[in-house]
């Protein structure tokens, strides 16, 4: 037994991929538990699978009554992405997607660690494994739910991280292609367009628009031109409906920064008429734009400054969009940047970082139970944790550290 323990310890200290292997094992064990408990649902993947079958047949994708709650509300192009899974029966395809998605999640950890490592000198294998496992502990509540439902937020995260990676390597073609693909899955990636403009990254923008046009017209393979236009009109209508959901600023479990500020401040006493809401949102958005611009400006002279800038923009997405707490897995790059640079922090910054990470990833349903976990979700602790981590990121940027 001691020999085996020594071998594992040696592997942990010398193999940079050991922690990623542990995440793979976790996924396999979690899958076994899901199947045993009859909870292997993959509800969202089923939606994508059906949409892929329908687009192959040139059928309508949207507003299908028999789908009930699980309706397709994404671009026609995104349905094309899932066509390869339709080769297999849905039961088998679910298992394949689980392992494909596990690979995506592991790739996300690898990319986030790789990008974050550019802000420090080379670290040892043991330290790398420690940081990846700590990051996984903080973020597991988000990617575990993604696996359970078969969602796509982790796929989007990997695309954003790849955009950051290839932008940092000055490869605009790949950045543009990847960002265009992400926008047709969910339009969150639009947040990078103003950033590229500010940074003068016009080649990336050019390839983004070029491949955006190509991806937009891909569904014409399956539809007549008239039906193609109709499907895209229905998609835009679904987007409008989605934007209208959970927009009550004082609504529980509204994790946007607009709602969190309103609920946690004396603003909760204000009567939020439609006009007041618009003015309030414009003020908050304007403040965020100014803060991001200031963050970018303060990065002049900071080595690999773009890494922290992408981390900031990716983390802002769930604070601006009306989405579930699963999307807060987007904060992963910030988490890894802070973990890797943790030794440079003051005691105050370390305490605040720990609190932020606990609030971001500490809402484990199986630990707290439905009542307490639901309460934590209602008061948007995940958003508070994200804001604390972004505060530390800003603080270190102003200190010219990150």
Q: What summary fits the major beta sheet? A: none
The helix-strand sequence is HHHHHHHHHHHHHHHHHH
Q: Taking Cα atoms only, what radius of gyration do you get, to the nearest Å?
A: 22 Å
**Head-to-tail CA distance between termini:** 44 Å
Low-confidence stretches: none
Percent of residues in beta strands? under 5%
The residue fraction in helices comes out at 55-70%
Could you say which structural class the secondary elements and strand pairing correspond to? mainly alpha
Total strands: 0
Helix count, per DSSP? 18
- The global form is globular
Overall average pLDDT:
92
Question: In a nutshell, what does this entry contain?
Answer:
The protein has 402 residues and is mainly alpha-helical.
Which keywords apply here?
mainly alpha, 402 residues, single chain
Secondary structure: elements and pairs:
Layout: H1 2-14, H2 18-36, H3 43-56, H4 76-81, H5 90-116, H6 125-149, H7 153-168, H8 172-185, H9 192-198, H10 202-217, H11 225-244, H12 257-263, H13 274-298, H14 305-320, H15 332-340, H16 347-361, H17 365-378, H18 381-398
Structure description:
There is one protein chain. This protein has 402 residues and is an all-alpha fold. The protein is 70% helix and 0% strand. It has helices at 2-14, 18-36, 43-56, 76-81, 90-116, 125-149, 153-168, 172-185, 192-198, 202-217, 225-244, 257-263, 274-298, 305-320, 332-340, 347-361, 365-378, 381-398. Helix 6 packs antiparallel against helix 15 (332-340), helix 7 packs antiparallel against helix 8 (172-185) and helix 7 packs antiparallel against helix 14 (305-320). The longest helix has 27 residues, at 90-116. It is globular and about 60 Å long. The termini are far apart.
């Amino acid at each position: 037994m001691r020999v085996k323990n020594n071998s594992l310890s040696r592997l942990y200290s010398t193999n940079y991929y050991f922690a990623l292997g542990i995440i793979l094992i976790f996924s396999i064990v979690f899958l076994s538990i899901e199947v045993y408990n009859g909870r292997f649902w993959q509800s969202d993947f089923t939606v994508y699978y059906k949409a892929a079958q329908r687009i192959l047949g040139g059928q309508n994708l949207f507003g299908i009554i028999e789908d009930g709650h699980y309706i397709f509300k994404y671009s026609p192009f995104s349905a094309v992405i899932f066509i390869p899974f339709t080769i297999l029966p849905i039961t088998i395809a679910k298992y394949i997607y689980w392992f494909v998605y596990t690979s995506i999640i592991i790739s996300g950890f690898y990319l986030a660690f790789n990008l974050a490592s550019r802000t420090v000198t080379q670290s040892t294998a043991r330290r790398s494994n420690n940081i990846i496992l700590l990051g996984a502990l903080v973020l597991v509540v988000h990617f575990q739910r993604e696996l359970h439902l078969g969602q796509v937020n982790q796929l989007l995260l990997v695309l954003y991280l790849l955009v950051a990676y290839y932008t940092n390597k000055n490869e605009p073609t790949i950045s543009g292609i990847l960002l265009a693909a992400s926008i047709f899955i969910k339009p969150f990636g639009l947040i990078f367009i103003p950033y590229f403009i500010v940074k003068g990254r016009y080649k990336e923008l050019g390839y983004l628009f070029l491949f955006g046009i190509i991806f937009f017209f891909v569904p014409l393979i399956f539809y007549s031109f008239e039906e193609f236009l109709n499907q895209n009109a229905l998609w835009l209508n679904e987007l409008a409906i989605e934007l209208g959901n959970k927009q009550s600023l004082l609504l529980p479990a509204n994790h946007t920064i607009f709602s969190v500020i309103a609920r946690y401040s004396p603003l909760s006493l204000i009567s939020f008429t439609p006009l007041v809401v618009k003015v309030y949102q414009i003020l908050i958005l304007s403040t965020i734009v100014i803060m991001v611009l200031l963050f970018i400006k303060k990065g002049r002279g900071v080595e690999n400054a773009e890494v922290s800038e992408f981390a900031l923009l990716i983390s802002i997405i769930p604070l601006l969009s009306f989405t579930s707490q699963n999307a807060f897995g987007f904060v992963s790059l910030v988490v890894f940047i802070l973990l890797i640079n943790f030794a440079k922090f003051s005691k105050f910054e370390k305490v605040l970082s720990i609190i932020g990470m606990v609030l971001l990833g500490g809402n484990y349903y199986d630990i707290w139970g439905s009542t307490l976990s639901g309460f934590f979700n209602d008061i948007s602790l995940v958003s508070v944790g994200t804001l604390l981590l972004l505060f530390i990121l800003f603080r270190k940027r102003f200190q010219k550290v990150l």
